[in-house]
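STRUCTURE REQUEST FORM
Protein name: Peroxisomal leader peptide-processing protease
Source organism: Sapajus apella
Requested output: structure tokens
Priority: standard
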Amino acid sequence: MGRQWGSAMRAAEQAGCVVSASRAGQPEAGPWSCSGVILSRSPGLVLCHGGIFAPFLRAGREVLTAAGAVFLPGDSCSDDLRLHVQWAPAAAGPLGGVERGRPGLCTPQCAGLEPSPPASYRRRLQQPPLPAELLLLLSCPAFWAHFARLFGDETAEQWRFASVAPDDEVPEDEEEDQLRLLGWFALLGVRLGQEEAEEERGPAVAVAPLGAVSKGAPLLVCGSPFGAFCPDIFLNTLSRGVLSNVAGPLLLTDARCLPGTEGGGVFTARPAGTLVALVAAPLCWKSREWVGLTLLCAAAPLLRAVRAALGRLFPSTAALAAHLPLEVGVPWGLPLREPGPPWAAAAVLVECGSVWGSGVAVAPRLVVTCRHVSPREAARVLVHSTPLKSVAVWGRVVFATQETCPYDIAVVSLEEDLEDVPIPVPAEHFHEGEAVSVVGFGVFGQACGPSVTSGILSAVVQVDGTPVMLQTTCAVHGGSSGGPLFSNRSGNLLGCSAPEGSEGERLNWEERDLASGPFSATNPLCDLRHSHQ
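Status: completed
Returned output:
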């Protein structure tokens, strides 16, 4: 992941853990497990997903959907609940050796990090599971409000957040439970002996304020796939992506996550290892298709809810609020927000009758989209810009390729200028393997603005030395058609998203493949652009 991520990776791994729950005297029941974030090592405080506690609720799962249910005290679960937390030691020896006789697994040194001692392998330390107790269960009301707006109403039946494929049979009540538990998290107290408490003093976790991370910013997810299953291999596995979209405290990332990573931490590169969010749902399905996005709950409002809940409980638990991590910039005076990539605002929403898709402004009054979004020349089109969501400009299709043409391109001439929309620079060179991003209104349409997904330029198809088609690993969805494809390095416009082939066949959305027409290869489009300039 390169030197940029070295410090963030170490901070993420130091903050990651796995939580398991079981019934006393019933080893055959469970265990249930998920990932978690270490808020403090001394005293031991862990924030994890609340889904694993559903079987232990005294009043049943329905208590989570009761009116006004924001938090539940630790005694809401039955007395036979047994909790254990496993994490990596706060610090390893200089050669990564095993300390105190604990077994370890030899793993290759991560490439691209700072120079390390001359050893081809390092030991991944095994920390014995530590007993823990449930302090409280809580949810974020703002998360639920935005979740209902995006995923509720008439589209609710199209969405699933289960950890199994849509074709697998899941009882209806179990699926309802998974949805009910989606935004619930748990605060745990880890029981440490005196010797362990002295050894487990790790660095404090910093928390990013809500809205401090821009759309398109790189993120690092640290979780344990499959929970407590084989932690010597899966404990604190890393996955990288970008912040794809934002709706209040509800965040989306294209970082790949697996079942068991619920409750895992999501971190930024700058400041290194700053906690942004926790994983709420690692797998999302829409209309029986994997979306390729992970649902997150922002950490800052979640921790505010923790503080509020602790203050309303017993005085002994209220004192724990002083050990919760602080938000970046409070009181350190660090910048709360870095400007996002300028090209993230270049995408526009294109409506032609009942059909809608994405597009990109290539001149103040010229928009490029896909032919299947605006199929007829002279058709009236309504274009919505990203920065000013309430502003819409009418235009007409002045050029569209034939259905038999391999290029799925249409050009819209607008009646007015698009204000405050950046005009990208077309790329002249294409390099396989370079980092790229796609911006489009797939999945949610205009509900929460365009989504950003990241990947690499996996193939450049050429004819007679001229690039004619690009292929990327970015996740694309229905509604992304016509959205711009950008180079992360230069910010130049590479092409337009065309998730369908020339014969109308989809190009493996599940495998995150995307066909895109190079902008520089469409000569009529270039002529129109120059005439408007």
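Reviewer notes: Residues 342-414 form a domain with the Thrombin, subunit H fold (CATH 2.40.10.10). The two ends are 41 Å apart (CA to CA).
Form closed.
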